[in-house]
Structure formats: C-alpha cells, structure tokens
Amino acid sequence: MAISDKTKNIIEWIICVIIAFVLAILIKYFVGTPTIVSQESMYPTLKPNQRLILNRLIRTTKKMPERFDIITFEAPSKIGYSLKSDIDLNNPVAKYENEPTNWWSKFIYYVLEINKESYIKRVIALPGEHVKIENGKVYINGEELQEDYLQSNVVTEEKVSNTAVAFNDFIVPENCVFCMGDNRERSTDCREFGCIPLEKIESKVWIRFWPLNLFGKVDVK
Prior knowledge:
Layout lengths: L4 H26 L1 E5 L14 E5 L1 H4 L9 E5 L28 H9 L6 E8 L4 E5 L2 E4 L2 E2 L24 E3 L4 E5 L9 H4 L2 E2 L3 E10 L5 E2 L4
Antiparallel strand pairs: 1-2, 2-11, 3-4, 3-11, 4-9, 5-6, 5-8, 6-7, 9-10, 11-12
C-alpha cells in the first residue's frame, strides 16, 4: 500500500525533529552550552543571574585546565567532614559515591543532566603542587599565591565553619585540580571536599552574554 504525501511529510518532520534533538544533545555535551549563575561563590567575578556560555571542549579533549581558569564540575557526593580523622590528606580527592549504574540512568544524569548538580569555581592548584592554607593566605609550593581577582578584604580560611575541618595542607594528586570560589566566605569548594578529578570537570567558563554591558570573554585573572 502506497504511503500518502501527508504521511510522508509527517515522517519527514519526525525525522527532522529527532535529528535536531540529537544534534542539540551532542553540541551541548561535547562543544558548549549556556548556563545561569545561581550562587554568590564567585562574586564579584561572576554574579547571580548572569548568563554564560560554557566551553565543553575541555571535557571532550580531556585537557587539564590552567591555573586561574574558571571551570564547572560535578558536585561531589560528600560535602564537608566533621572529624579530622575522616580526611586523608595523603589522598585528598573528592568522593563520588552515588553515581548512576545502568546506561539509561547515566544518559539521564550525565547527558541530559537531569537532577545533576554542578559547581563553578576557579582553579587554584594543579597536579603535584603543594597547597597550604594558613593565616588567611594560599601558598603553592611554599610561595604565596597572588590573587588580584579577590576583593581586598577577602581572606582564605583554613576552616569553612566552626564545626568542619578542611583540606588545608596537601599535595594535589595526579589528574586532579584544587578549586575555590572567589567569594571565600560564601563558597563551598575543595577546602571542604577535596580535589576534583579531571574526569569530573565538565566545562570552562568562556563568554558572558548577559547583562549586555558585560558581554564578552570572561577574564580569569
């Protein structure tokens, strides 16, 4: 039985929609995607409700970011430690313990990013570097890190609260980075949960397109 022209048109439209959906997913996952800043942890560099374009090529190519890059990464499953004995400064890597196991849940979580939480932070230290936080300052391999992007009154505390202990004296493991927010008092970052493995880095902040008066590439230094 011959297919009518109307049926053919419907089939063609369905195919076009499927192709467009697949292309959009591929571009979002491998190339770039827009996002909205929702927290104050990167203030004043990034402010709530600003719109950004994220460069996903850093994940596609598995390239290690550079110091001071602003990146996004999957939020760890373990945020904060109440006992010093729970922190292993010899292996200060963030824990990811609640990851999906079957292919469909992985697609929903990693590709469609449904119910997936991510953080935007600045890369402070790279693999093999010794990080020490003391007296409100950050030291990399024994030298104080110059952080001109911070506001003048910002200090980097060793502990993020009165009841929590922090990762404050360690060597960044291989294929990991240590990240913090610019607004140190309001930032949940690697001081609380440890270094981020390269495979958990999702993107690098590239362009700010809103507000329009700040349109352009985000300056990382």
